[in-house]
Amino acid sequence: MVTHVLDSMNEVITNNYDTNHKAVDIVANDNSEANIIALESGTATTVVDNVKGPNHKSKGLATYGNYVKIKQNNGKTALYAHMKHGSVKVKKGEYVEKGTIIGTIGETGNAYGKHLHLEIHNQNNVKENPTITLNEPAPSSQKPEKNYINPTYNNSKTTTTTNKSVSKNNQKSEFLSAYNYHYGSIVDALKSINIDSSYNYRKKLAKVNNIKNYHGSYSQNIHLLKLLKEGRLKKA
Q1: Considering the entire predicted model, what is its pTM?
Q2: What is the pLDDT of residues 10-43, one digit of tens each?
Q3: Could you tell me the sign of the dihedral formed by the alpha carbons of 52, 58, 59, 64, in that order?
Q4: What are the residue ranges spanned by the domains of the chain?
Q5: Fewer CB near the terminus (10 Å): N or C of the chain?
Q6: In the CATH hierarchy, which top-level class contains the domain 11-134?
């Protein structure tokens, strides 16, 4: 199943893992200052939140700008870098649950443009490709989720006959539905039935469906997606 690292669940990888860049760079597909969430539960071992902006002459750890390292329960360590100044929400030594917001995408340290630099160190402290974590194999009882790291699908205009049929039914009903959607993104699910997936429209959907103080959090988006899959999401 897909593991999300942004609470908006609309990740796009802009710089892949290779021998020179042993990490991935991630942005939100709407270029928003999305919140970053912990991939797995663990303890924050390093927290830096005093860097105010980019510094392209920085060296060593300073290149990360504002960053958080979390030693995960599975023995691996995740490093989230270039976060916005003042946005870090965890402290050194704090236990962080999976899905907790730890900061916001920014442009600090040796960064060009706002993005998340994500590193994963395995149990031997060797940097591994983060897509191993981001795209774990789905359990046999579940259908595989869409690999969100391919940026091309975000702009895809392809819809199946079934989805077109669902879209027509949505026009006649007071509810939106996407019964055949099996993945983990409310943004992509709305797109699959030709419905506005913007933050502003999702905020309207949340209000109509009694989800208070919508700010695009992981739990709020999952709630919207659950209602949509069940055909119980009221139109805004």
Answers
A1: 0.62
A2: 888 888 899 889 999 999 888 889 999 999 999 9
A3: positive
A4: 11-134, 156-234
A5: N
A6: mainly beta
